[in-house]
Write a structure and sequence with these properties.
The chain has 165 residues and is an alpha/beta fold. The protein is built from six helices and five strands.
Protein backbone atom coordinates (compact mmCIF):
# COMPACT_ATOMS: atom_id res chain seq x y z
CA UNK A 1 0.00 0.00 0.00
CA UNK A 2 1.36 3.41 -0.98
CA UNK A 3 2.10 5.91 1.75
CA UNK A 4 -0.04 9.04 1.86
CA UNK A 5 2.08 12.03 2.81
CA UNK A 6 1.35 15.38 4.41
CA UNK A 7 3.41 18.15 2.83
CA UNK A 8 4.06 21.26 4.94
CA UNK A 9 5.56 24.29 3.20
CA UNK A 10 6.62 27.23 5.39
CA UNK A 11 9.68 29.46 5.05
CA UNK A 12 10.06 30.15 8.79
CA UNK A 13 11.68 27.08 10.44
CA UNK A 14 10.14 27.84 13.86
CA UNK A 15 6.63 28.01 12.38
CA UNK A 16 7.27 24.86 10.33
CA UNK A 17 8.28 23.05 13.55
CA UNK A 18 5.02 24.17 15.21
CA UNK A 19 2.94 22.93 12.26
CA UNK A 20 4.65 19.53 12.39
CA UNK A 21 4.24 19.37 16.18
CA UNK A 22 0.53 20.21 15.86
CA UNK A 23 0.11 17.42 13.28
CA UNK A 24 2.27 14.84 15.09
CA UNK A 25 -0.79 12.76 16.08
CA UNK A 26 -1.20 11.90 12.38
CA UNK A 27 2.44 11.13 11.60
CA UNK A 28 2.24 7.42 12.42
CA UNK A 29 -0.27 6.99 9.57
CA UNK A 30 0.68 9.91 7.30
CA UNK A 31 4.41 10.67 7.02
CA UNK A 32 5.10 14.40 7.12
CA UNK A 33 7.49 16.06 4.67
CA UNK A 34 8.69 19.62 5.22
CA UNK A 35 9.82 22.28 2.76
CA UNK A 36 10.96 25.86 3.36
CA UNK A 37 10.18 27.07 -0.19
CA UNK A 38 7.99 26.28 -3.18
CA UNK A 39 11.12 25.12 -5.00
CA UNK A 40 11.99 22.61 -2.25
CA UNK A 41 8.34 21.51 -2.17
CA UNK A 42 8.49 20.72 -5.90
CA UNK A 43 11.55 18.51 -5.31
CA UNK A 44 9.77 16.66 -2.48
CA UNK A 45 6.62 16.23 -4.61
CA UNK A 46 8.77 14.77 -7.39
CA UNK A 47 10.47 12.33 -4.98
CA UNK A 48 7.14 11.19 -3.50
CA UNK A 49 5.77 10.61 -7.00
CA UNK A 50 8.91 8.63 -8.02
CA UNK A 51 8.47 6.41 -4.92
CA UNK A 52 4.91 5.60 -6.03
CA UNK A 53 3.42 7.26 -2.97
CA UNK A 54 0.74 9.99 -2.70
CA UNK A 55 0.26 13.41 -1.13
CA UNK A 56 -3.06 13.56 0.67
CA UNK A 57 -2.66 17.00 2.21
CA UNK A 58 -0.57 20.07 1.47
CA UNK A 59 -0.45 22.86 4.05
CA UNK A 60 1.29 25.85 2.58
CA UNK A 61 2.20 29.32 3.79
CA UNK A 62 1.28 32.06 1.34
CA UNK A 63 4.02 34.65 1.83
CA UNK A 64 7.41 33.07 1.08
CA UNK A 65 10.52 34.17 -0.78
CA UNK A 66 10.30 33.18 -4.45
CA UNK A 67 7.00 31.67 -5.49
CA UNK A 68 4.06 32.37 -3.20
CA UNK A 69 2.06 29.55 -1.63
CA UNK A 70 -0.90 30.31 -3.88
CA UNK A 71 1.33 29.92 -6.96
CA UNK A 72 2.50 26.50 -5.75
CA UNK A 73 -1.06 25.37 -5.05
CA UNK A 74 -2.27 26.53 -8.47
CA UNK A 75 0.59 24.56 -10.02
CA UNK A 76 -0.36 21.51 -7.92
CA UNK A 77 -3.95 21.80 -9.15
CA UNK A 78 -2.77 21.74 -12.79
CA UNK A 79 -0.65 18.59 -12.28
CA UNK A 80 -2.23 15.14 -12.46
CA UNK A 81 -0.18 13.79 -9.54
CA UNK A 82 -1.28 16.51 -7.07
CA UNK A 83 -4.68 17.56 -8.47
CA UNK A 84 -6.57 15.51 -5.85
CA UNK A 85 -4.30 16.56 -2.98
CA UNK A 86 -6.28 18.48 -0.36
CA UNK A 87 -4.89 22.02 -0.21
CA UNK A 88 -4.79 24.31 2.83
CA UNK A 89 -3.40 27.84 2.68
CA UNK A 90 -1.88 29.00 5.97
CA UNK A 91 -1.10 32.67 6.29
CA UNK A 92 -1.33 35.83 8.27
CA UNK A 93 -0.84 38.12 5.30
CA UNK A 94 -2.76 36.99 2.23
CA UNK A 95 -4.97 39.72 0.89
CA UNK A 96 -8.43 39.17 -0.45
CA UNK A 97 -7.16 38.95 -4.06
CA UNK A 98 -4.66 36.19 -3.20
CA UNK A 99 -7.32 34.27 -1.29
CA UNK A 100 -9.81 34.54 -4.16
CA UNK A 101 -7.12 33.41 -6.60
CA UNK A 102 -6.31 30.41 -4.40
CA UNK A 103 -9.94 29.37 -4.07
CA UNK A 104 -10.70 29.82 -7.76
CA UNK A 105 -7.54 28.47 -9.37
CA UNK A 106 -5.93 26.15 -6.82
CA UNK A 107 -9.21 24.59 -5.68
CA UNK A 108 -8.18 25.50 -2.17
CA UNK A 109 -9.96 23.37 0.42
CA UNK A 110 -9.29 25.54 3.46
CA UNK A 111 -7.75 28.81 4.55
CA UNK A 112 -6.22 29.08 8.02
CA UNK A 113 -5.20 32.42 9.49
CA UNK A 114 -2.07 32.74 11.64
CA UNK A 115 -1.92 32.34 14.55
CA UNK A 116 -4.05 29.21 14.72
CA UNK A 117 -5.26 26.97 17.51
CA UNK A 118 -3.22 23.72 17.49
CA UNK A 119 -6.35 21.59 17.97
CA UNK A 120 -8.06 23.40 15.08
CA UNK A 121 -5.16 22.71 12.70
CA UNK A 122 -5.22 19.02 13.65
CA UNK A 123 -9.01 18.89 13.22
CA UNK A 124 -8.80 20.49 9.76
CA UNK A 125 -5.98 18.11 8.74
CA UNK A 126 -8.05 15.11 9.90
CA UNK A 127 -11.13 16.35 8.00
CA UNK A 128 -9.18 16.96 4.80
CA UNK A 129 -7.35 13.62 4.97
CA UNK A 130 -10.65 11.85 5.68
CA UNK A 131 -12.12 13.42 2.53
CA UNK A 132 -8.98 12.44 0.58
CA UNK A 133 -8.99 8.77 1.60
CA UNK A 134 -12.76 8.47 0.95
CA UNK A 135 -12.18 9.81 -2.58
CA UNK A 136 -8.94 7.97 -3.33
CA UNK A 137 -8.69 4.73 -1.34
CA UNK A 138 -10.52 1.45 -1.74
CA UNK A 139 -9.84 0.10 1.74
CA UNK A 140 -10.78 2.60 4.43
CA UNK A 141 -10.19 0.37 7.46
CA UNK A 142 -6.49 1.23 7.92
CA UNK A 143 -7.46 4.88 8.48
CA UNK A 144 -10.15 4.36 11.15
CA UNK A 145 -7.81 5.01 14.06
CA UNK A 146 -6.28 8.24 12.74
CA UNK A 147 -9.14 9.90 10.89
CA UNK A 148 -12.85 10.59 11.29
CA UNK A 149 -14.09 7.06 11.96
CA UNK A 150 -17.75 8.10 11.77
CA UNK A 151 -17.37 9.48 8.22
CA UNK A 152 -15.31 6.46 7.17
CA UNK A 153 -17.92 4.03 8.57
CA UNK A 154 -20.68 5.94 6.78
CA UNK A 155 -18.75 5.63 3.49
CA UNK A 156 -18.14 1.89 4.07
CA UNK A 157 -21.89 1.42 4.59
CA UNK A 158 -22.64 3.42 1.42
CA UNK A 159 -20.22 1.32 -0.60
CA UNK A 160 -21.76 -1.86 0.76
CA UNK A 161 -18.40 -3.39 1.59
CA UNK A 162 -15.07 -2.48 3.10
CA UNK A 163 -13.17 -2.39 -0.19
CA UNK A 164 -15.74 -1.58 -2.88
CA UNK A 165 -14.94 1.61 -4.70
Amino acid sequence: MADIFILCVEDEPEVLDVIVRDLSALEEFFPIEMAVSAEEAREIISEIEKQGDKIGLAICDHVMPGDKGVDLMIEMQKTDFTRRTRKVLLTGQAGLDATIEAVNHARLNRYIAKPWEPSKLLEIARDELTAYVIEQEKNLLPYMEALNAEKLQEEIRKRGSVSDY
